[in-house]
Amino acid sequence: MIQLSKETQYYFTESAEFKYLRFALKRIGDALVTTFTCDKVLDAAEASEKQTLSATSKATSRVVSNSIYTVKHFGIESVATTMSSNFQPCYYEEHGGLDKWIRPPLSLIHNMSDKELLWRASFVPRIKDYPYPRIPKIAFMFLTKGPLPLAPLWERFFKGHEKLFSIYIHSLPSYQPQFPPTSVFYGRQIPSQVSEWGRMSMCDAERRLLGNALLDMSNEWFILVSESCIPLYNFSFIYHYTMKSKHSFMGAFDDQGPFGRGRYNENMAPLVNITEWRKGSQWFEVNRKLAVTIVEDTKFHPVFERYCRPACYVDEHYFPTMLTIQAANVLANRSLTWVDWSRGGAHPATFGRNDITEEFFNSVRGGSTCLYNNRNSSVCVLFARKFAPSALEPLLQMVDSKVFTDRRL
Which Pfam family would be a valid example here (predicted)? Predict the structure, then answer.
């Protein structure tokens, strides 16, 4: 190592060349401080480093040009003319490895348009077997205007099963969630847009949720819920019920009345004939294959957007009709989300504090029979809605009293 005299140190400290060099080196630190995600750090730091290395090259070149002066006055026979990079990436990745294809996004925030997102989400491996130990997960997709008043109930539902689920939240763009870092909902909001009930923007929000969830290769089932939904069983039961199912769950029935076929527009033919027109609940539970079918659609979407407008409520007809035409054999033709329409009106009944009793839950869970994997079953619903915020406290008490007990399939 070269030992410098005080005069030499002063020269290098005060010279314009080294002031410029220190300024250039500081750019890497500035770039790292002002970026927020690992990917952005990589991009910004690498770009900054290129600029810095260029700057240091210029600076050291000027220093070398003065080397005769330094030798003459200070007796130094050499100076450094190169600078090596000390930049380290946020993680190490083997070039050309599989990890970059199967790793879920580090952040749900991105700048992709809907068209870009759905295109990316439609990528499908052609080989069925995965070349790595894959643990299938359920993607719970919360379609909400803003807050999740029943979040404490869902927190208890998810607790202890962190490797078996993922969460995605689509809210109004203006809503700023306030979940603590310890919450399962923290950082799970996706880039969202305004969605209106009964219009195509609502279906777009659902496809946006599916598109983001499909970016995680481990997600095998996709369940759409709202802020007023609750689970009727514990996580283990719901996980095994969906994973073992041979069918996806979406209502798709032929309603020949004014609120079914009465909403059909003849301009949809020949792509959609009236005999293929279907109606179903907005809330669905689908497997990965069917989720891809939904996000990759470019044929039915523009037709429904143009010809199914209120009083044709597109969120009740678009997916049921399209999937009946394209994949009817994989539909169970029912939703796993229970709602009560017995009170009449445009919206289902809402239940509050005084409605929450053990008898009520038993009637919801055991009030019907259905087919599950082509066999009769008394378990036909796994979720229920709509529940008001006032129902939270008695719901939590029922969880503590083990009302949400497991049931063997």
Answer: Branch
